[in-house]
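To close the section, here is one more complete example, presented without commentary so you can practise reading it yourself. The ligand is coenzyme A.
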Amino acid sequence: MLIQKKLTGAMANYIIRRFKTKDYDIVRLLFRQGMIEHLPTTCIYILKLPRVHFLLMVSLISLLLASKSYLLSFMCMTAILAAGWQLMKGEFNHYVEQCYMEDLMDIDKSYMEKKKSCFWVVEFNGRVVGMVGAQLAEDSDDVMVLKRLSVAKDQRFKGIARSLSTTVIEFAKQQGCKSVTLETSMVQHGAQKLYESMGFTKTDVCTFPTLLGRFASFSVFTYVYNIETP
Ligand SMILES: CC(C)(COP(=O)(O)OP(=O)(O)OC[C@H]1O[C@@H](n2cnc3c(N)ncnc32)[C@H](O)[C@@H]1OP(=O)(O)O)[C@@H](O)C(=O)NCCC(=O)NCCS
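Output:
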């Protein structure tokens, strides 16, 4: 089984290795940072929705009619937008905390000690700058799930995520899996580009299962990579 992979070419100083317990804090931090960075894009997406324009317009007109003051109405609208930002931030934090309570609570137990599962990190000059996990799908013995892919912001566009995803595909092949599957969201444009360029196909679109997710029609995409059998 692959223990450590030294990359070549432009990535010669990067090493992909299996997760060690000492990586726990940095892995959880990289995951949080990788998720929270999508907050502004998500807010912009929501602000562009016609139903949100309508609600904001109705609020503004009601405030103007009730207060007869442009200044007060403007201040109330600013407060409404700030509350919306806080609401979205809460939703993101809730999601991260939920993941912290699931597989990221005990990475050794969830990945390293589990059958047909593994977690890798990328090390650059002794610093962990990327990560990915692979777990067997709950209801299957031959479908691998790629999870928690994240790369530090200052190390992007160097091919790290591509190498990590390839590591998961190679691992899935070794484990006799027929496919690799994953979920990503509509605002994770970089991830979508990466998976599509690697041969993953979008097979399903569903709405994020929260009240806010349904209100905003926030989509979650499923991608599948089919492993060719000789
Ligand atoms: C998505 C992410 C993992 C990509 O990491 P990365 O190491 O920069 O990706 P790579 O350098 O391996 O890029 C692979 C391909 O994807 C493309 N790509 C990556 N990020 C992109 C972006 N933001 N916009 C457009 N294309 C992007 C690259 O151009 C590259 O294509 P190319 O080889 O044809 O040039 C990284 O941006 C990240 O950690 N994001 C936050 C967390 C996240 O969204 N994770 C995905 C979970 S599903």
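Once you have examined the tokens, check your reading against these statements. Strands lie at 4-6, 14-18, 118-124, 127-136, 143-151, 179-185, 201-207, 219-226. Helices lie at 24-36, 39-47, 50-67, 70-101, 107-112, 160-174, 189-197, 211-215.
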